Amino acid sequence: MGSCKENQQENPQQSNCEFVQGPIIVGAGPSGLAAAACLSNHGVPSLILEKSDCIASLWQHKTYDRLKLHLPKQFCELPLMGFPEDFPRYPTKSQFISYMETYASHFSIKPMFNQAVQSAEFDSGFWRVKTQDFEYSSKWLIVATGENAEPVVPEIGGMEKFQGPILHTSLYKSGFDFRNQRVLVVGCGNSGMEVSLDLCRYNANPHMVVRNTVHVLPREMFGFSTFGIAMALLKWLPLKLVDKVLLLLATIILGNTDQLGLRRPKTGPIELKNATGKTPVLDVGALSQIKSGKIKVVVEGVKEITRNGARFMNGQEKEFDSIILATGYKSNVPTWLKGCDFFTKEGMPKTPFPDCWKGSEGLYTVGFTRRGLLGTASNAVEIANDIAQRWETNKDCRSSCNSHIIILK
């Protein structure tokens, strides 16, 4: 590729081509903002390309109204700036969005919105990144689209027959729209549990499909964050022993969840999270509604959707007014990152934590640790430190492309 100037000489019709001095960051969620802030702290400019019209679009457009951080705020801070002291222990959705907007403003981060990356490919020493409007070139590419870029919508036979609405939780806002309805919730993770709980508050009748095993832990134990307890214990005890302690305490506080149709995996919650990314459910009230019978647990998988409801694997049919798919999210990296074997076909780094943040040829990733915002913060710091060390050594490249540089501040 050489430079954008050379590309234009080879293809005169390609005029929207710019060389970027610093890294190109794909994604303006918490991961992209954290990376940009840490780079700025080292005096390194960057360009963020965001497909949506705002920062943190997943939080702003695809989350339900009652959402709060599942972990205490000290475990969810982005680097270099903490949450306001007057924020509660578990900030609300609007508070977290406000925090990220303040964060972006504080570090003068100004993403280029409505720029969906169609392809990114390493060629002749540079990363060539194309959106629908422009082509950008840089020595460094930071993939910050994260583990939860796109909703996972399963293909269930008969969905086209159903007379009511079928929607993914990314489109669910409140149980108000489902008041007094019989609702099938497919999925029993944190989203499935919280949506079911929210539906109860509007006098709906949720039936939650639990096909697989799931760890349910109390959000707090004896006044302390369960996650905080786990982090403290891991400093002194082996991981498997910490898992045993957590499960013992969870059984004392919550009882035997197997009896409620919520069978626990054989692998402990932290070990399972680290190995597969499957997050344990932190209970915020759904379990008491399951015990009272207001949330019905369905242990049979859905065989097919019918005109008026669903048929399950055991042949039983039930009628529902609406269906909500709490089936999670996935990475979208394979759809736009080309010619790169750093990622699996599922869009996750092949290199396990803690070394998953750096690839070859100036490729970096942030937000793919399976450790939430705590992992994001760690990634961003490491990436910025690494790029800053190389920043001064690339003066020749920057000066040779002066006539085609985007000035980023």
How would you describe this protein?
The chain has 409 residues and is α/β, with parallel strands linked by helices. The protein has two domains: 17-149 and 331-400, 3-Layer(bba) Sandwich (FAD/NAD(P)-binding domain), CATH 3.50.50.60; 151-328, FAD/NAD(P)-binding domain (3-Layer(bba) Sandwich), CATH 3.50.50.60. It has helices spanning 4-10, 30-41, 57-61, 93-106, 190-200, 226-234, 239-254, 269-276, 286-292, 372-391, 395-400; strands at 17-20, 24-26, 47-49, 117-123, 126-131, 135-138, 141-143, 150-151, 166-168, 182-186, 205-209, 216-218, 220-221, 224-225, 281-283, 296-298, 302-305, 309-312, 317-319, 322-325, 329-330, 363-365, 405-406. The strands form seven sheets. The chain has a five-stranded mixed beta sheet with strand order 4-5-6-1-23, covered by helices on one side. A five-stranded parallel beta sheet has the order 9-20-10-11-16, with helices on one face. Strand 5 and strand 6 (135-138) form a beta hairpin. The longest helix is centred in the last third of the chain and has 20 residues, at 372-391. Residues 5-14 and 403-409 have low confidence and may be disordered. Its EC number is 1.14.13.168.
